[in-house]
Amino acid sequence: MFVLGLPDAISVALFDLDGVLTSTAVLHRNAWKKAFDAFLSERDPEGFVEFTEQDYLDYVDGRRREDGVRAFLHSRQIDDVPEESVDAIGDGKNKLFVATLEAEGVEPYPGSVRYLEAARDAGLRIAVVTSSKNGAAVLDAAGLSEFVELRVDGLEAAVRGLPGKPAPDSFLLGAELMGVTPAQAVVFEDAISGVEAAVAGKFGYVVAIDRVGGGQTDTMLSAGADVVVNDLDELLAA
């Protein structure tokens, strides 16, 4: 290990964005809640059961929009929704998210900024790999674009036809474009699906960030994370 809390063989860092570098995971969760609650209450007003934070963590967090919609609806035994309705829920969620982002902006986590600064100073190359199609806007709004050498986001994944997390394809593309093998790269993730993707891709090290509490740390370790922290700057003392 060296000053960044990583194995010496690591030369490239692949960071997820929402919930790892920026607080936008909360904005995503709130937007999903509004979109799903509107759908569920209209579909079955009498039997309406709201979308919860645990639903977000279990079925939506880290996944592509359409995959998250299908996974959550399946969890409620709703499998008869046509493709256009799946798209409508996802598009409605995205409009809510973008509107909130434009109105309120976004702040990076201070500990993440400290870690990015230390990583840059130490010569660790930095890329962002996110399922979000708003990756560029979020990085710019948070003032983090200066740290990022390469971005693989939901737009790039769609163009290339890549499956979403927990498949490792986006992370593997990030490593390839950075010119390293997976064994030479570390993945930073806050979603269980993202941890599973990093493990499936056989990356050299997997850092999970638990900003939820409860049993999330144990779940992340069970999914294959090498270490779990509450904020990235904890690694600077490792």
How would you characterize this protein structure?
- With 238 residues, the chain is α/β, with parallel strands linked by helices.
- The chain folds into 2 domains: 12-23 and 107-237, HAD superfamily/HAD-like (Rossmann fold); 26-104, DNA polymerase, domain 1 (Orthogonal Bundle), CATH 1.10.150.
- It is built from 10 helices and 6 strands, in the order E-H-H-H-H-H-E-H-E-H-H-E-H-E-H-E.
- The protein has helices spanning 24-43, 53-60, 65-75, 83-104, 110-122, 135-142, 154-160, 169-177, 192-200, 216-223; strands at residues 12-15, 125-129, 150-152, 185-189, 205-209, 227-229.
- It has a 6-stranded parallel β-sheet with strand order 3-2-1-4-5-6, with helices on both faces.
- This is Beta-phosphoglucomutase.
- Keywords: Carbohydrate metabolism, Hydrolase, Isomerase, Magnesium, Metal-binding, Phosphoprotein.
Question: What key attributes describe this structure?
Answer:
Rossmann fold, 238 residues, 10 helices, 11% strand, alpha/beta, 2 domains
Give the topology string: H per helix, E per strand: EHHHHHEHEHHEHEHE
Tell me the span between the first and last alpha carbons. Answer: 8 Å
Mean pLDDT: 93
Helix content: 40-55%
Give the class-level CATH name of the largest domain. Alpha Beta
CATH homologous superfamily (4th level) name of the largest domain: HAD superfamily/HAD-like
Low-confidence stretches: none
- For this structure, the quaternary state is single chain
Task: Classify the secondary structure makeup into a structural class.
Answer: alpha/beta
Shape: globular
- The strand line-up of the biggest sheet is 3-2-1-4-5-6
What is the tally of beta strands? 6
Number of helices: 10
Query: Compute the gyration radius: what is it?
Result: 17 Å
Number of domains: 2
Shape-level CATH architecture of the largest domain? 3-Layer(aba) Sandwich
What portion of the residues fall into strands of 2 or more residues? 5-15%
Catalytic activity: beta-D-glucose 1-phosphate = beta-D-glucose 6-phosphate
Pfam family, one: Hydrolase
Cofactor: Mg(2+)
Keywords: Carbohydrate metabolism, Hydrolase, Isomerase, Magnesium, Metal-binding, Phosphoprotein
